[in-house]
Amino acid sequence: MKEKALVIDYKYCTGCHTCEVACKNEKDIPVGEWGIHLEDMGPIQLGGKWHWDYHPIPTALCDLCAERVSSGEEPSCVKHCLAKCMQLVDLDDLPRVLRELGDGASCYIPAE
Ligand code: SF4
Ligand code: SF4
After folding, report:
1. Could you identify the atom of ligand 2 that is nearest to the CA of residue 16?
2. pTM higher than 0.90 for the full model?
3. Of 20, 31, 51, 104, which has the fewest CB atoms closer than 10 Å, so is most exposed?
4. Which of 4, 33, 37, 63 gets mutated to test ligand 1 (max ligand atoms within 8 A of its CB)?
5. Where do the domains of the chain lie?
6. Is 17's C-beta closer than 6 angstroms to any atom of ligand 2?
7. Which CATH fold topology does 4-108 show?
8. Residue whose CA is closest, atom 3 of ligand 2?
9. Could you please report the per-residue DSSP string of the chain?
10. pLDDT band at residue 23 using 50, 70 and 90 as cut-offs
C-alpha cells in the first residue's frame, strides 16, 4: 500500500464513538482494547466559556485498514464517521491537507 496517513479534523468531531465501534467490528478487537479510542476533553471552563472537546486517537492496533484499502475501500472509521471529519491521505498530500484544515487537525501514521 502506498504510504498514507489518517487525518482527523478534531474541530468537527462530535464525540459520537462511531469510529471506535466501526474499527472494533472491522478488526474484531476484543473488549478492553481499541484500534481508535475517543478521549473526552471536558467539560472545562476557560476564559469564561465552556469547552467540551473530543479527540479520537488511533492506537498501535491501527494499520490504516490495510486490507480494506488494498481492495479499494475506505478505512472503516472514515466510511462511518458521521461528521465526515476523517480522511485517508497520501503522505505526499499530507502537508497540503493539514495546511488547508488548519488548527485542530492532526494525523496518524503507523510505525513500520
Ligand atoms: S483506519 Fe481502520 S484500523 Fe485504523 S482506526 Fe480506522 S478503522 Fe481502525
Ligand atoms: S466517528 Fe467521527 S465524529 Fe464520531 S467520534 Fe469518531 S471522529 Fe468523531
Report:
1. 4
2. yes
3. 31
4. 63
5. 4-108
6. yes
7. Alpha-Beta Plaits (3.30.70)
8. 13
9. ---EEEEEEGGG-----HHHHHHHHHHTPPTT--SEEEEEEEEEEETTEEEEEEEEEE-TT--TTHHHHHTTPPPHHHHH-TT--EEEEEGGGHHHHHHHH-TTEEEE----
10. very high
